[in-house]
Amino acid sequence: MKILVVDDHAAFRRSLAEFLRSQAGIELVGEAANGKEAVEQTAELHPDLVLMDVSMPTMGGYDATRIIKNQHPATRVIMLSSHVGEVYRTAARESEADGYIEKTSMKTELRQLLDDGARYQMAI
What's the pTM value of the predicted model, to 2 decimals? Predict the structure, then answer.
């Protein structure tokens, strides 16, 4: 599975990238610091999965997700956020995200997503 990581916090991005590199069957194809870079890199790198932060400068995760899903409908986008609450999940659904993971429970949910691959249907 080819993955693109998108988050404006470099330390978080590095930590997530390190975790992903340690997983069998995962190829980290790129990292982006905002939604604009995510859209550009998705077009260039064709990831199977984009792990997308919600709140970023330049272009936020919801807007970037809408564009990616419109231009590359087969690419799965999972929103990652420290925001907790139904309003954020609703916004993720409206942006056509394939899932929403709160960063507080990310380790468990992300591991299940990676283990199950395309079969995993995340509640959003």
Answer: 0.89
